[in-house]
Amino acid sequence: MSEHRLSLAPMMERTDRHFRFLMRLITRRTRLYSEMVVDRTLIHGDAARHLDYHPAEHPVALQLGSADPGLAARAVAVARPWGYDEVNLNAGCPSPRVQAGGFGVVLMRTPERVAEIVRAVYEATGALPSVKHRVGLDEHEDYAFLARFVEVVAASGVRVFVVHARKAWTQGLDPKANRTAPPLEHAKVYRLKRDFPELTIVTNGGVGTPEEARAHLAHVDGVMVGRAMWDRPWRWAAADRLLWGDAHTPDRRAVLERYQAYLHERLAEGVPLRVLVRPLFNLFKGEPGGRRWRQQLDAALRAGRLPAGGLAALAPVEVGA
Asked: Was 222 annotated as part of a binding site?
């Protein structure tokens, strides 16, 4: 059974260590990806700020943004002591800032460059990155372009490909529109798995429930989910049972109690309350009492503290699993 059966997608300003910890309380098995971190940020910036995480987060992956083999190798060398289970190279982000840096989805035009980056990282650190990319970009939308990208990159040793099943437009669409406007083409990702059976192929895009993820697993090795986990995190409490046959089902009150203990640990380290509470806002979304939950969290943030009864005191009556 693939280690990548279900993954939380890297999302800027979403998949920080606090949201990842919350999702680990909800699902034991899901692989958690960090926000993308640019190579120079790790080399010249505050590495711990971007790399620290709770040991419970394993399996956890670091996503790297880089277009330079030497810088990528140096950045991964900086990250190695943190013990991430995977380093993932971003070849799928279409944002103008990322394009200006020469990485993200524009790397799909030069698979040889991606292969150089992978080899440099492996030779310097022993880490063999995975690659996240699109099914195509701009005028490059035929399957042959996608298959050649995978073939060239796989020759460098990469064995895990996470494929956003939409092509990207590098002009004319903002990053948000690029997540929704181009049509989903999961069939192309399925075909990759048929044509490259020795590789681990993970599909990404438009998956909203564990049941939908399970349907995709008839064709690929794994499914990556982004906004659907951020928007409705508790919906994924059934993931371990449905996708792995795990009999354990999390209890929401227990999740709140454990997250509150985590929250107090981080507060003692100087993390702002608002940063720690933000991942919780959607925990009851679409359920009775969900709106009141959000309102009470807002009130707690305005007051600058949680009530005496803690998070459980704010939760709707329907707080059980």
From this structure: no
